[in-house]
Backbone:
């Protein structure tokens, strides 16, 4: 079975700026729960965008499930939560409508969702603990509840790979713990590969199987337990 | 005499009913994507199309249709390929369109009342042929919106997530731009080129003030659009006004009324807590 994500000697620089990433190697097995952490500006979001085929690496290669990431044909199997909690929409929007939007990639762009799709959407809402808020406008939810709704949206397409970019940003500590527990449960129940990207990883540290620290390159890759104590501080200057 | 006893008013109401539904239905997605002013840009290109019709001696509606769809797709192409920022792409087309229109209209010697009917709308100039064109293309446009509704909402909610999960964002954006172009070309007889964008936007933002979901916003916006067109045409008939202005002022009044509940709910300004 091919690797879920495979980066080989990836290098990237934005125009007129010094390199963000140099010679990055990363291999994620299907079913792994991996946290990618590092300081802001360290290159973790760029790494993620290259892995998803949203940016083209200037050197090296990026594969998704064995295919070049930019031309990956199984995109409906990727659930993605982008690095911001606000939606691109001006209108009021309910939790159910947000989650249903996540089902479109699996269902196809034409026509309404079928009964089975709608039932699936309700199950995903229930799975993240928002069954009693499914008809509520998302603007009335707390930050943590909103992120749960976005996770349900990402899950609605039955993804093989769930990618979460800074899902705990702007969320209080209790909600961070709660989100981390939810992700751990989803990982165990669904067996989905999870890439959790965050500038801090405290909330998920005890759940993830593997921690990858990115600061221009991969400076640590292994079990979080093996991480030197001083490195838990994201501002720590690694050698 | 009843307002509906005149043939031209029956034509105006029939055309207006379709325009009143189509304009907010398409405008809904433009507003959600913070592209409210794109309709103005396309309207100016449609003006160049009308002028080209006069210059070439062919139907101004047909040339406006070609120009506005082409202009809308060009704006989307510039925006998506990042050749120009969204507002710069709009400005480029906006000014080029109006300049080309003015040059062609003056070259054709067509600075007359017919041209003003296109600019500000007219209830006297709608023909049976206009109604047929509006009915056919309007229904096709509405059918496309209905069929693509879920996908268009998904792109509006989060374009990047939609792209990552394989939704064809580029083609959907082109379809939306083309729909905006068609809507503007079809609506210019009733509302006028200079005001059609308002009928695409004002009902949607009015509906957003009182709605509770995407679906309710869309349906309320269509309702406000139809009521605005009917009320505006009635006002235009009895007060001898340009229908475009009357329709848009009714839609603006709807926005003011819809804003009242939110204004009453918000805390009074200037009061400091103890």
Residues:
């Amino acid at each position: 079975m091919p690797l879920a994500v495979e980066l080989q000697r990836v290098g990237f620089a934005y125009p007129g700026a010094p390199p963000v990433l140099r010679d990055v190697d990363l291999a994620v097995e299907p079913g792994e729960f991996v946290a990618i952490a590092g300081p802001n500006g360290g290159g973790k979001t760029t790494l993620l965008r290259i892995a998803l085929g949203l940016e083209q690496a200037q050197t090296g290669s990026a594969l998704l499930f064995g295919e070049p990431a930019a031309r990956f044909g199984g995109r409906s199997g990727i659930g993605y939560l982008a690095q911001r909690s606000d939606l691109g929409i001006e209108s009021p929007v309910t939790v159910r409508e947000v989650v249903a939007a996540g089902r479109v990639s699996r269902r196809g762009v034409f026509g309404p969702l079928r009964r089975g799709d709608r039932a699936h959407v309700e199950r995903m809402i229930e799975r993240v603990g928002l069954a009693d808020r499914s008809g509520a406008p998302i603007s009335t939810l707390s930050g943590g509840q909103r992120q749960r709704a976005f996770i349900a949206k990402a899950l609605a397409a039955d993804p093989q790979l769930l990618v979460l970019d800074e899902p705990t940003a702007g969320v209080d500590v209790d909600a961070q713990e709660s989100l981390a527990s939810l992700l751990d449960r989803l990982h165990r129940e669904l067996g989905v590969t999870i890439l959790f990207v965050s500038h801090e990883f405290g909330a998920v540290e005890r759940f993830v199987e593997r921690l990858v620290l990115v600061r221009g390159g991969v400076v640590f890759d292994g079990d979080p337990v093996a991480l030197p104590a001083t490195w838990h501080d994201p501002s720590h200057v690694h050698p | 005499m009843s307002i509906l006893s005149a043939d031209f008013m029956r034509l105006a109401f029939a055309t207006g009913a379709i325009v009143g539904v189509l304009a907010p239905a398409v405008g809904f997605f433009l507003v959600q994507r913070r592209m409210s002013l794109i309709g103005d840009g396309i309207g100016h290109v449609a003006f160049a199309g009308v002028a080209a019709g006069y210059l070439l001696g062919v139907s101004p509606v047909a040339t406006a249709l070609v120009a506005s769809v082409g202009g809308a797709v060009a704006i989307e192409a510039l925006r998506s390929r990042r050749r120009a920022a969204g507002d710069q792409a709009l400005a480029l087309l906006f000014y080029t369109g109006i300049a080309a229109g003015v040059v062609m209209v003056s070259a054709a010697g067509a600075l007359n009342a017919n041209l003003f009917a296109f600019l500000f709308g007219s209830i006297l100039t709608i023909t049976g042929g206009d109604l047929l064109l509006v009915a056919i293309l309007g229904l096709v446009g509405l059918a496309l919106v209905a069929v693509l509704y879920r996908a268009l909402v998904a792109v509006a909610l989060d374009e990047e997530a939609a792209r990552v999960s394989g939704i064809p964002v580029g083609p959907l954006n082109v379809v939306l731009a083309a729909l905006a172009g068609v809507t503007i070309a079809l609506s210019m007889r009733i509302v006028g080129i200079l005001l059609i964008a308002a009928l695409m936007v004002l009902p949607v933002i009015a509906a957003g003030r009182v709605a509770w979901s995407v679906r309710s916003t869309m349906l309320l916006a269509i309702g406000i659009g139809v009521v605005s067109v009917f009320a505006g045409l009635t006002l235009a008939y009895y007060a001898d006004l340009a229908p475009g202005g009357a329709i848009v002022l009714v839609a603006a009044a709807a926005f003011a009324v819809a804003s009242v509940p939110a204004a009453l709910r918000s805390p009074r300004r200037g009061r400091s807590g103890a």
Notes: The CA atoms of residues 130 and 259 of chain B lie 36 Å apart. Chain B has one domain: 3-197.
